[in-house]
């Protein structure tokens, strides 16, 4: 067991994107926009396929950070206080969402983490996460 | 350009009118914070944090509680949807989420009833982007519960930015 320290790298997490993942996460966030569950409509709208919704991008950033904080600290008490994401390339089924991250700073009990989730088309999400440590 | 200077003036005038509404269109969550909804989310996300089985809700679910759901519609006075309609009517028909910044004051607890307000924060444009020309529309949501003293307690906030644009190659 250890603590969260500036400069720490967060181990890479690779998440295969499947149609089931896209649909189940969208519905579990109560987001029923058709482009997240209906491929025909998504393609008619000019998209390659259905794609991961924004609430899920945020939720996966939360999971990446809290799973790692649990590994580092041995407890689940790390409080996520904010997740700010910039959105880029869509995350389509049959691609892989690869998260990388690091601890930018730790000051006054507040750690600022930078997280990137990338897909084959480029960065899907670039995030800054604030956690109380 | 889609519509030129006259259109820009109309868009910015509407933006100022809607911004002046401040926090508007308050609406409650369909259900209180509840374990079955949390469990569905945990399964889908593959999130195994045991705290979310013991009376607390994951922070990034804050927005989930007040989603419109299947067939739900924004209130007529909703500032974000009002601004989107103004831009759609001026020819900026396409939309793309670009930024989502959430802050969590504390975790919600099972049984709490959440409500949300929406305010228009800013409208910036027209900007030429890789997607096409458009306006960046930023809204601010604030989630509340009734505090123990009967006062409104802010539990989470979100700045959400979209690009409302004319797709490249589309006639304008």
Automatic annotation (TrEMBL), chain A:
<comment type="similarity">
    <text>Belongs to the enoyl-CoA hydratase/isomerase family.</text>
</comment>
<dbReference type="Pfam" id="PF01575">
    <property type="entry name" value="MaoC_dehydratas"/>
</dbReference>
<protein>
    <submittedName>
        <fullName>MaoC/PaaZ C-terminal domain-containing protein</fullName>
    </submittedName>
</protein>
<dbReference type="InterPro" id="IPR002539">
    <property type="entry name" value="MaoC-like_dom"/>
</dbReference>
<feature type="domain" description="MaoC-like">
    <location>
        <begin position="14"/>
        <end position="119"/>
    </location>
</feature>
<dbReference type="InterPro" id="IPR029069">
    <property type="entry name" value="HotDog_dom_sf"/>
</dbReference>
UniProtKB/TrEMBL annotation, chain B:
<feature type="domain" description="FAS1-like dehydratase">
    <location>
        <begin position="28"/>
        <end position="146"/>
    </location>
</feature>
<dbReference type="InterPro" id="IPR039569">
    <property type="entry name" value="FAS1-like_DH_region"/>
</dbReference>
<protein>
    <submittedName>
        <fullName>MaoC family dehydratase N-terminal domain-containing protein</fullName>
    </submittedName>
</protein>
<dbReference type="Pfam" id="PF13452">
    <property type="entry name" value="FAS1_DH_region"/>
</dbReference>
<dbReference type="InterPro" id="IPR029069">
    <property type="entry name" value="HotDog_dom_sf"/>
</dbReference>
